[in-house]
Specification:
This protein is an alpha/beta fold. Helices cover 33% and strands 19% of the residues. One of its GO terms (molecular function) is ATPase-coupled transmembrane transporter activity.
């Protein structure tokens, strides 16, 4: 699995280097030191700073757990999936792109749950004074992007929509911290990125949005589990309960954007206003949806795109890496995200 791949939501710029837990391994993982609940079944959960553990705790969903949750903190999606595949954790949350790379590498994973949010946070940004006005104007220009990230796919898809290919631009593969520096110094004309970096660039780096992922990316995030955990009846029972708590926590986020922004900012080092912008633009808009045929088809498109670009080693059916037993009565994956109304996002 490529270490360069970054999930749809990762650490904020301020903590990109410093927020890794002190006991991290070469895979970018470590224990958060937190165990919640009680009982004879333990669910090992892979998480990122400020993600599932933080939101469940803030929403009160870790109270009265009839089983234990042992948290392990990772720096990004790929090492979470490595841990899932290696049975080091039972389940973990990631963005829409890491599962594609993990599946291409024949990892032992199964996508078991999904969230659908707006794609407004998936953006290509330019400086406010830039002469670039539309996607087609990127022809011949330099664009920074994290290789294999959700933003990389969004860049490819946005260019295609504008009648261009990735070969029509000068791609500079940079992780967010380096990309921010290059963008701020004018070393690149544009930056393809995701929230909360999008919100941070708009607030703090004199940026404006050239185009967003609306209509070109699927806006999905996933919970991914190990197949052996899914073969354990006791684990399946607690996974079902865990996913239900995540759904309730997401409802809480939507209903309490300011409160969550304060918690999220404290957890990650994001300035409050940047966190709130990201909540209202992306984070709080997500709704839990079924992992259905439409979701699989959209992930298949991502997988085929990266295979064509030779960034993954093979073509494969993404459906082979999906377990639909937890769909229940969840709405379709194409269900519209929530919204906070016009004018609610930062500029």
């Amino acid at each position: 699995m490529r270490r360069r791949i970054v999930p749809a939501l990762s650490l904020p710029l301020a903590l990109l280097l410093s927020a890794c837990v002190s006991s991290h391994t070469q895979n970018g993982s470590g224990s958060s030191g937190n165990t919640d609940g009680k009982g004879d079944v333990t669910l090992d959960v892979g998480d990122q700073k400020g993600n599932d553990e933080a939101v469940l705790r803030a929403a009160g969903q870790l109270k009265n757990l009839p089983y234990k949750i042992k948290w392990s903190t990772f720096t990004s999606g790929p090492p979470i999936l490595e841990a899932v595949s290696a049975k080091a954790v039972d389940i973990g949350g990631v963005g829409n792109t890491p599962p594609v790379f993990a599946a291409a590498a024949k990892s032992h994973i199964k996508v078991v749950a999904a969230k659908h949010g707006t794609a407004d946070g998936e953006a290509i940004v330019v400086k406010k004074g830039s002469p670039l006005k539309k996607t087609a104007d990127l022809k011949g220009e330099s664009v920074a992007v994290a290789q294999g990230s959700s933003a990389h796919y969004q860049l490819v898809a946005s260019l295609a929509k504008a009648g261009l290919s990735i070969k029509d631009v000068k791609v500079t593969f940079l992780q967010p911290a380096d990309a921010l520096a290059a963008f701020s110094r004018g070393k690149v004309a544009a930056w393809a990125v995701w929230d909360p970096y999008t919100s941070q660039a708009l607030r703090q780096s004199d940026a404006r949005v050239l185009t967003t992922g609306q209509g070109v990316v699927n806006g999905l995030n996933f919970q991914v589990a190990n197949p052996s955990s899914l073969g354990d009846k006791k684990k399946v029972k607690v996974i079902k309960d865990y996913l239900g708590r995540l759904r309730k926590a997401q409802d809480w986020v939507y209903e309490h954007p300011e409160e969550w922004a304060k918690v999220w900012g404290k957890e990650t080092g994001l300035p409050y206003q940047v966190a709130l912008d990201s909540v209202k633009r992306t984070n709080g808009t997500r709704v839990h949806v079924a992992v259905d045929k439409a979701a699989v088809a959209s992930e298949q498109e991502i997988a085929d795109t990266f295979a064509k670009l030779k960034l993954t080693p093979r073509r494969f059916p993404f459906a082979d890496y999906v377990d639909t037993r937890f769909n229940g009565d969840l709405p379709p994956s194409t269900t519209a995200p929530r919204t906070y109304g016009k004018g609610s996002q930062g500029s």
